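Form 7-S
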Amino acid sequence: MAFRRQPKRPRAAPTDLTLIDLCAPTVAPSRAQRRRKPPSPGAAEVRGHLERPWLLDPGLIEGTATKAHEDGHLRDAFDRASGDVLSARLGYLVLKSEHAACGGGCLLERTLVVKPSADELRWNLRVLHELAHALLEAQYAETGKRFAESDAWALTLALAVPRKAFKRRHEARHVPRWAVALRAMTAKVVMQAA
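Output:
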């Protein structure tokens, strides 16, 4: 018994779209061609503060952050609640308030009044920022050295990513990614000042 060969069915002609798809280059788009996410408003605001003149020496800001971490005995600086833990260990009470303003917590002794956030990373950064204001206010009371908002943000970022953990900054998941990127920028300023 011989097998009969089935006649071949004619193939459908490819559509123009298929031809275009087949001929299109498979090279990934260049960096310039990729769409980048616009920076968050918070990142742009903080960057604007950091670009203003700092009143304090960058080494003094780094030293303040290092001392706070040593006094706070944090096991992991990149812990999700590092702001709350560090504040508590340094003797500050953290209160949530819708009516909180930046630096407003310094008016109450050893109390940080922080605006609540649904985002855990942003909350942690806000707590660290109010802690930075409190530490700088305490330093001002001792030394008489005034500070600017740029100094407070530089200290906030130094508290978020301390110098001794800077090489591991890519592991930091306790603050927004833009804060880690800005910390790298401030670390360069500190290195240039040294």
